[in-house]
Amino acid sequence: MFRQYVNQGEVNPCIIVDDIIRSGQAIEETAQLVKSLGAKIIGCGAIVRFTSAPDMVEGVPIKSLVEFDAHMYDSGEACTDCFKDEPPEHVRF
After folding, report:
1. Per-residue model confidence as pLDDT tens digits over 57-93
2. In a designed cystine with 7, which of 16, 37, 54, 67 is the match (CB 3.0 to 4.6 A)?
């Protein structure tokens, strides 16, 4: 998990900003690290947040410039649109 760090300086409130939030795992891990250092999280933001990702972290709303609704599947067999004869959509992230 995280290595234990000892904050040796002044602890200030923190705003966490990410580029893309897909699952929310990275921003949740960042929030845990920030809290372990003793900082209070006062804001969270992202450029893009997938609608399947959490909209809050540590009780703080995640604000984003763009919300993107996309369904991620591990295989074509799991994709419900694939059974409707929809063409595959290849998106690079």
Report:
1. 999 999 999 998 877 677 767 777 777 777 766 766 5
2. 37
